[in-house]
Specification:
Order of helices and strands: EHEHEHEEHEEHEEEHHEHHH
CATH topology of the largest domain: Spore Coat Polysaccharide Biosynthesis Protein SpsA, Chain A
CATH class of the largest domain: Alpha Beta
CATH superfamily of the largest domain: Spore Coat Polysaccharide Biosynthesis Protein SpsA, Chain A
Number of domains: 2
Low-confidence stretches: 308-315
CATH architecture of the largest domain: Alpha-Beta Complex
Largest sheet: 9 strands, mixed
Number of strands: 11
Radius of gyration: 20 Å
Strand content: 15-25%
Helix content: 40-55%
Mean pLDDT: 89
Distance between the termini: 39 Å
Structural class: alpha/beta
Length: 315
């Protein structure tokens, strides 16, 4: 039997955060029928036992091996029953009536295929919740880390009037999609190992004629971790790898080639800066920068899809 909303949550050893997330869903969603699916991504912290004991209404999928974001969510979404489907991070807390409001909005706007909400840090400050599709300028700014000079571009702050607006793409931490939209564009693309999977989904939806909307008046909390300098090096590599795939999949050959040139040049310059510093200053950070910038050069010169994805998981 069809339900209003299927919620797919992937958990990897975040038992306490998952408990808070599930509790907030059931306590703060009052007017919808729910199908909640938790994918246990080979957890060793007792997450699965907690779900079975405290949330017996939740469907539990137990992975036999670790899977990536898209593959995990797809296995929950494909057999689902909801009129709407939601991919939700386990490190989120739902506010009262949030999901009711999104479904009510989408019921009243049948051409909205995907919708996102405002993400808040635990202290109530804003996280980025929507953004522009990548282009060569934004990619250059990211590759050179010049995006740090702007707190807005290409992400934007909360709007003052709380009115829904059409945007390019919304964050995959909390992303609603209409079942008919999935019928048109398909499920998450598992070529994306990490990052840009939601950007690709929103791009395909827009290309198929669906609207993507951001709802600033609907808020949830997101316990997004703060990364170290070493983790930022790894994250930059992963983002650039996924952005390469996005360019190659959706943009012209010239645009994809131009982005590869940007990555090669900026990565070689960063290598020239960090290689000598391995000898005397910030050795571990320098080592990380050398590793990830060299790998960026490799995936830029050789087509990134020729690499075995497992080689670049970098767990």
């Amino acid at each position: 039997m069809a339900v209003d909303l299927t919620i797919s949550i992937v958990n990897t050893n975040n038992r306490d955060l998952l408990r808070n997330c599930l509790r907030s869903i059931f306590e703060n969603t009052h007017h919808l029928s729910l199908e909640v699916v938790v994918v246990d991504n080979v957890c060793i912290d007792g997450s699965a036992d907690m779900v079975k004991a405290e949330f017996p209404q939740v469907k539990l999928i137990l992975n036999q091996r670790r899977l990536r974001f898209c593959a995990n969510h797809n296995q929950a979404l494909k057999p689902s029953q909801g009129r709407y489907l939601l991919i939700l991070n386990e490190d989120t807390v739902v506010t009262p009536g949030a999901f009711d409001a999104v479904v009510e909005f989408m019921d009243g706007h049948p051409r909205v295929g995907i919708a996102g909400v405002t993400l808040l840090n635990p202290d109530g400050s804003l996280q980025w919740s929507y953004a522009d599709f990548p282009n060569l300028l934004s990619s250059f700014l990211y590759a050179t880390t010049l995006t740090r000079l702007s707190h807005k571009y290409p992400h934007y702050p909360l709007l003052p009037d709380d009115q829904p607006m059409s945007v390019d793409w919304v964050s995959g931490a909390c992303l609603f999609v209409r079942r008919e939209t999935i019928s048109d564009i398909g499920y998450l693309d598992e070529q994306f190992l990490i990052y840009y999977e939601e950007t690709d989904w929103c791009y395909r939806a827009r290309q198929a004629g669906w609207d993507v909307c951001y709802l600033p008046g609907v808020e949830i909390y997101h316990w997004q971790g703060q990364s170290t300098s070493q983790e930022r090096s790894r994250r930059r590599f992963r983002v650039n790898r996924s952005r390469l795939l996005f360019f190659r999949k959706h943009y012209s050959t010239l645009s994809a080639f131009s982005f590869r040139v940007i990555l090669v040049v900026t990565s070689l310059l960063r290598l020239a800066y960090w290689l000598p510093r391995r000898l005397w200053d910030k050795r571990e950070l320098a080592r990380q920068e050398v590793v990830y910038n060299w790998r960026t050069v490799l995936i830029s010169i050789v087509r990134d899809d020729l690499f075995d994805g497992e080689l670049f998981q970098m767990n």
